[in-house]
Amino acid sequence: MLRITFIGTGGSTPTPNRNPSAIAVNREGELLLFDCGEGAQQQMMRAKTGMKIKAIFITHFHADHVLGIPGLLQTMALQGREMPLEIYGPRYVDKFLYHLLSLGYLGKGFEVRAIELRPGEVVRRVGYKIRAIKTVHNVVSLGYALEEDLRPGRFNRERALELGVKPGPLFSTLQSGHSVCVDGREIQSEEVLGPPRPGRKIVYTGDTRPCESVIEASTNADLLIHDGTLSEETKEYAIDYMHSTALEAAEVAKKASVKKLVLTHISARYSDLDGAMRLEEEARRVFENTEVARDLMTIEVGYSE
Fold first, then answer.
1. How far is Cα 231 from Cα 294, in angstroms, rounded to an integer?
2. Cα separation values, 289 from 45, 49, 223, 281, Å
3. What pLDDT digit, counting tens, does each position of 111-127 carry?
4. What pTM, to 2 d.p., does this model score?
5. Which of 7, 15, 126, 188 has its CA at a distance of 20 to 30 angstroms from the CA of residue 40?
6. Where are the domains of the chain?
7. 2-149+206-300 falls under which CATH superfamily?
8. Which residues are marked as active site?
9. Run of H or E residues at 32
10. What is the side-by-side order of every strand in the sheet holding 30-36?
11. Main-chain phi, psi angles of 122, to 5 degrees
12. Could you give the C-alpha distances from 173 to 92, 128, 134, 158, 180, in angstroms and in order?
């Protein structure tokens, strides 16, 4: 399972339809949070994601991306959390956490760790990694790419039977990449498995202007979640405040050959349904498989094969 839940999809300020930025990613039961805007924990309750968060990844320290963290930490403490919480982010994440915890009542009962990342650095997890991406905003910022490890190749059942392997546990052993012994002969997994298959990849940019580093990191991604704050008619504001238009995000998706683009961080001026449709139509002129995120929307990312 790789499920993305859009906790908050608004840009800069909350609106009746959109909370500030936050995205929950559930990968095989491990819950990660990317950004944590104001009201994130209430949105997580509505979405029924749970709050057993393994780690939080912050793109930058503008208020609409981090103000939900204090309340979330307090709730975790009141719920009796004991498991440590890791908070990753760009330069100054340690100072951010120091001032946050200096309030005294936050995070009591469990350890909260700040880990600074720079573009290109990787956080290794079991079965996948998260890579920090250089983005272009008006403060120090990062994006993130979640990339799964290669999967074993497709299992050739007929070949396994020809080699004398009986269905059952030995099949599973070979499928997991290990050898088995049949009638005194060692059978290697490579004899019955096709070439390794790619895992899934999702990219979350946070706030950014279009940039080559995001295109490179997003190449062939299953899902690109990109800043789509404004439309082309307000492109000058996007340039001034270092955001992207919907059309610019679509151009990034096209250049990167991603499978699906989702626009988020939607400006309040496009917060209603008509505004969202305008952004979506604008982007689809360049990249057809585009969707504007809605609060509490979920996407299940499947394997390409």
1. 17
2. 29, 26, 10, 11
3. 999 999 999 999 999 99
4. 0.93
5. 126
6. 2-149+206-300, 157-191
7. Ribonuclease Z/Hydroxyacylglutathione hydrolase-like (3.60.15.10)
8. 64
9. strand 30-36
10. 112-116, 85-89, 53-57, 30-36, 22-27, 2-8, 298-300
11. -125, 140
12. 46, 21, 40, 16, 7
